[in-house]
Every structure is written in C-alpha cells, then in structure tokens.
Fold this protein.
Amino acid sequence: MTPTLVRQHRSHADSSPRVDLWARARDWSEIQERMLVPLYETVHERLEVGPATRLLGLRCGSGLALLMAAARGAAVTGVDSAPERLALARERLLPDPAAGPRARGRAARIVEGRPGDAADPRAPGYDVITAFDPIGCRAGDAEGLGGLLAEATPLAERGAAVVLAGWGPPERCATSSVLRVAARLADPLRSSGRWRPARRDDLEEVAQRAGLRIDGSGRVSCPFGYADTDSAVRGLLSTGLFDAGISAAGEEQVGKELAEALHPHQRADGTVWMPNVFRYLIARVR
C-alpha cells in the first residue's frame, strides 16, 4: 500500500524545511541510496556477514543495506526515526503474509524510534552494528551519531563490530563542489545542520567518544551517477544535506543552484557523473 502524500510545513518557530517527506523518501530509495552499494558490499564482505550474524542497522532508512545483509543470511534489525523511509524498508524486508515459509526467509525487524527500542531481551546481543548514513559533511551529525551509539552499544555483545561511515577527503569527492551550495545558501546563524567539509578524523573521534576500540578502516569508491540533472537534483536533495539551505532560501532556489553546480559534471549524453570516495571505520565494543 502506497503511503498518502503529506507535507511538512514550517512556521516562524519551526526551522524545518517545507518538503514533501514521502516524495523525498521515495527519491532516496529509488535514486540516491544505490550510490552507497559499494560501501555496503565492502563492509559486509570484510566482516563476513552471514547466517551467524545478528545485525542492527542504525538510521537504516529505506533498508537497502539491511536487505543486502539479509540476502547473505543475516538476521537484521533496522531502526530509524523517519516513518517515511521505514515504510519503504518494510516493503523491502517484511514478508508478504501470502508468501509461503520458504519465500519469507529469515525474519527482519523494522523499528521506528531510538536504538533502545530495538532491544530484545529474548535474543542474544547483536554482533554487528552498522551506521552507514555518512557523517562528516553536516555540522552536528557526529554528535547525533554519538548519542545513537550510546544507546546501541549496550545491546551488543562484547567484541561486536561497530561500523561507522563518512565522506572521504573533499579533494577525493567530486560531489563536494556541489555540496558547497548548501553552505552558501544556508542561514549563517544556524549552528547545526549546515554543510561543512569532512575532516580526516571525524569517524575516529566519534568512536573514541563512544568508548569503542578502533579495529581498522578503509576507503571505498562510491561514484554518484544519474540519468540526468533532474534526477541528480532529486537524489541529492533526498540526502537532507541541503535542508539548511532550503529553510533559508526555499527548495526552488536550492534546486536551481544545484542544477547550475552540476553542470560541470554533466556528460555529452546528459548523464551526470561524480567520482567520490567514502571512508568506513570498524570499531569494537569493549
């Protein structure tokens, strides 16, 4: 069943951008999320995610990373606070009641709320926790992730792997030049949510503050490729990285500025291509 479209409005007391949240969630799942597939695959392979894995996905969004882990046999639980994206995750992961037992496979859990809401006292602790939503390009995102980890790590076994992801160095991410639109249009007095260049030690700082033991890291090529400029604008807006700019200048103006910034990355056939490098960090629960 397709969710009814609703709009999020903002008042003078609410700085949230006025956007169609259901349409944005659909753009994320259909356009943008697949750009991170190389990251998901690399981490799953490195950690040997499989039938013995109990995985908790933080900020799981519309669930593509969970679906890929479940396809490897893992028992997956996803938690997020965005009902629009979770509705799509349920479509992907929860079994069709009409399907037979073989078609259903291993059950997945999709939880709306905070990590603590994913606790299951009847089951063993999680042995993998993933936070694939990349940090490092938005002021305040590291602090927000730290709060989620503080709730999630008590649900894990000792020695469990915790995976954090972030944007790579700006000089290795072609999309960085486009993301600067967000900084230029944002309200300069807004202290959080504004775009900033990724820093080298963002992930390590989060892990250390959470009391985790760092156990390795890596870089993955995740090029952003789009069929045309319109799909590129829709995909990038779905990340939320431009919300501060939308609050200050409006979605129409941000879209126009984005289209202009994307022009150098447009190929002769109209497609848009931006090579990027993302980082991941593997830490362990003490």
In short: The first strand starts at residue 54 and ends at 58. The domain at 21-173+196-224+276-284 is CATH 3.40.50.150 (Rossmann fold). Strands lie at 54-58, 75-80, 109-112, 126-135, 156-167, 213-221, 224-226, 272-274, 277-284.
